[in-house]
Design brief:
Rossmann fold, globular, alpha/beta, single chain, five-stranded parallel sheet, 17% strand
Length: 348
């Protein structure tokens, strides 16, 4: 499959990222996407199609793992692939029995409820390419906990891994999907040295904080919170141009569900003195604004979101904000809001 570009959409839990660990082992030309159920799957599929159209690869594979499609979704995706052209192939590998109707109707929909999706993926691709002993051990750990084989020796380690992935919120996957994938891969790779220990689940559980610090530590040691904050500032600074918004001639950056806004917002503005304000919008429709003396964000909050506060720290509520799973869609809504409120078409 050297001529193919793989677009891999998977779930956001241990099994979902485990599937991507497998494909990351076997494919070089691959791009990762992650989704929960419902509307996000549709948005991610739209995103994949847009990327295929923009990248214009010779051949493309859309791989979906650990996600149970509704029959309506499967029909829609199948139709779009057929209409597009012959250089797109779709394959779904899953284990949720609720997808049986889809599996009955579509030959690309592979369902096996006796194995987790990670094991299905590993068994499939290792049979085509080659087996990987180290990876297969991780696969067994994920399989034991995902289909709840509590009599297997890997089960307790799997429970710890389950919590490790579900608690890995340090990198925002909506704003930084590539960095989030790399973070998950690094976490899962650091599980592997524990396989041979006498009580691997206890050893891993004791060292989760240390593992995360090792990942985020740069030149100097610090608290995990501070190390994560520094990494966020680094990523925001790297992506500042595409995340930039303009309000009444003032330049700001827009984040989504960033958390710890006071620390990250103020640190970003210090690191990037040409920016005048920092705005974070959340899935709850609230906005938080921070400034560094160049603009009174209490007035900005009142103007845009019926809010208020202090000149350098304010907030409000954007009642008509429609939450999205794609950053550029979120950004467009805020830019459109600024244009509507100010009558100025230079929000971008």
């Amino acid at each position: 499959m050297d001529n193919y570009k793989v677009y891999h959409l998977s779930h956001t839990d241990l099994d979902g990222y485990g599937c991507q660990m497998v494909t990351n082992r076997y494919f070089d030309n691959i791009k990762f996407y992650n989704s929960n159920y419902g509307r996000e799957i549709n948005e991610r599929f739209d995103e994949i199609f847009n990327d295929i159209n923009n990248e214009k690869n010779e051949k493309n594979v859309i791989l979906i793992t650990d996600l149970n499609l509704t029959l309506e979704q499967a029909k829609s995706f199948d139709s779009r692939v057929k209409i597009a052209n012959s250089n797109i192939m779709i394959l779904l590998l899953d284990h949720h029995k609720s997808g049986q109707d889809c599996a009955n109707d579509f030959e690309w929909y592979f369902l096996d409820d006796s194995r987790c999706a990670t094991k299905i993926s590993y068994d499939f691709f290792s049979s085509i390419f080659k087996k990987d002993e180290k990876l297969s051990k991780l696969v067994d750990v994920i399989n034991a906990v995902d289909i709840w084989l509590d009599n297997q020796k890997e089960f307790e380690l799997g429970k710890v891994c389950l919590g490790l992935v579900s608690g890995a919120k340090e990198i925002n996957r909506i704003m930084f999907p590539k960095e989030n994938s790399l973070y998950m891969f690094e976490l899962l790779s650091k599980i592997q040295p524990y396989f041979e220990q006498k009580k691997p689940h206890i050893a891993l559980d004791d060292n989760i904080h240390k593992i995360k610090k090792e990942i985020f530590k740069q030149e100097q040691d610090d608290t995990l919170s501070n190390l994560v904050s520094k990494q966020n500032i680094k990523m925001l600074t790297k992506n500042r141009d595409k995340m930039q918004i303009i309000y009444e001639g003032y330049k700001g950056i827009l984040t989504y569900n960033i958390g710890n806004v006071s620390v990250i917002g103020n640190d970003f503005l210090k690191k990037n003195p040409d920016f005048d304000f920092f705005m974070d919008i959340t899935s709850r429709k609230t906005i938080s604004l921070r400034a560094n003396g160049k603009i009174d964000v209490s007035k900005m909050a009142a103007h845009l979101a019926n809010g208020g506060g202090h000149p350098n720290a304010s907030g409000g509520l954007v009642g008509n904000f429609k939450d999205s799973f794609i950053y550029k869609n979120i950004k467009k809504q805020i830019e459109d809001l600024i244009i509507k409120k100010t009558g100025n078409n230079n929000a971008r």
